[in-house]
UniProtKB/TrEMBL annotation:
It comes from Paraliobacillus quinghaiensis. This is Stage V sporulation protein AE. It holds the Pfam family SpoVAE.
Length: 190
């Protein structure tokens, strides 16, 4: 059995869906945007089934718990992916939120709204925050408990005061995905 390589995106709103769908067509991979929602409403078994049927790596999985604390469906999907032997999570794009110190995660690094790779965390607009190596956000705290090879923090996908707009090619989100792929040495493997 071939292992499916998954990139987790911790956002599921319309902007995130459109951006990831657009970038998957440019970069390669399979975007499971049909399961993206804010909050996540799909079951882990449905998402895993779709991952197994995906034609191209990486598979982009969007999870979102819309600011609800505790274990929601988004976190349940993430836990199921982590424990499935046929799936390897090669990285995560952790999206910052306005929540303050309720849910947070350590991150490998961040990309600010100007496209700079930085050691500090970022806020929802992609502006550096004083925290080094961590961000506040929805769903992200669970990333901290998993052994993921790379977690990249960015601001709100497709937004960041227009810096990540799809009309500009969503450069911040694209850079985060490309850095994960570069570290894993894959690009559109079948």
């Amino acid at each position: 059995m071939t292992t499916k390589q998954v990139i987790v995106i911790t956002d599921g709103d319309e902007y995130a869906r459109n951006t990831i769908d657009y970038l998957a067509k440019l970069i390669g991979g399979t975007a499971l945007v049909q399961f993206a929602d804010n909050p996540t409403t799909s079951s882990a078994s449905d998402v895993i089934k779709a991952i197994q049927q995906a034609n191209e790596n990486p598979v982009y999985v969007l999870i979102d718990d819309a600011g609800v604390s505790g274990i929601g469906l988004g976190e349940e999907v993430l836990l199921a992916l982590e424990s499935d032997p046929g799936i390897t999570i090669i990285g995560a794009v952790a999206v910052a939120a306005h929540t303050k110190n309720l849910e947070w995660s350590r991150v490998s690094f961040s990309i600010d709204q100007e496209g700079n790779v930085i050691g500090n965390g970022v806020d929802k607009e992609g502006i550096a925050i004083p925290e080094i190596g961590r961000i506040n956000g929805d769903t992200v705290y669970l990333l901290d408990q998993l052994d993921l090879p790379v977690v990249i923090a960015i601001g709100d996908i497709g937004k960041m005061n227009g810096h990540d707009d799809i009309s500009k090619g969503s450069p911040i989100t694209r850079k985060a995905i490309e850095l994960i792929l570069e570290r894993e040495g894959i690009r559109g493997e079948k």
